[in-house]
Amino acid sequence: MSDQVCVGAIAGSYGVRGEVRLKSYCAEPTAIADYAPLVDETGRSYSITLTRPIKNGFAARLGGVTTKEEADALRGVELFTPRDRLPAPEEDEYYHADLIGLRVLDTGGTEIGTVRSVMDHGAGDLLEIQGPGLPNTVLLPFTRACVPTVDIAGGRIIADPPEGLL
After folding, report:
1. Each residue of 147-163: b (16+ CB within 10 Å) or e?
2. Strands of 111-120's sheet in order across
3. Which of 30, 84, 158, 162, CA to CA, is 20 to 30 A from 21?
4. What is the pLDDT of residues 3-42, one digit of tens each?
5. All structural domains of the chain
6. What value does the CA radius of gyration of the chain take, rounded to a whole number of Å?
7. Structure pTM?
8. Quick one: which of 49, 45, 69 has its CA closest to 59?
């Protein structure tokens, strides 16, 4: 699914008439409906109609889902859209999917590891880096000071980690 980008996930059923609780991973949360139809990892396609905002997402109708039991069975399913349907990122903006798997080098050219995931806990993005020389994964703040260069085409990130991180 490398040409697909995860734009949301189903958090379970909402009500008793087949609606689902939908989490949107889009910068503008309602934009998830603009990318429909969305597909899951198995290739099943879903049309989406957002019915109302709810806490932590939206209540939505998915094409082909008509009962609470069907909606409950989809809990945890991630929804994807083709990469070419997404807008191009602005300068110095990146899709998380583009960062995952990039090699991370320090400013001297020594390999630190690879980006395992990108996390945002509210105070800014963190790159989770794993590597053979690291006993555990490390979290590197994704700021201009700590990550001066992102070279998507070259498959690498140049990092200047804070003192004591590694």
Report:
1. beebeeeeebbbbebee
2. 138-141, 125-130, 111-120, 103-106, 156-159, 149-151
3. 84
4. 888 999 999 999 999 999 999 988 889 999 999 999 999 9
5. 4-84 (2.40.30.60), 96-159 (2.30.30.240)
6. 19
7. 0.72
8. 49
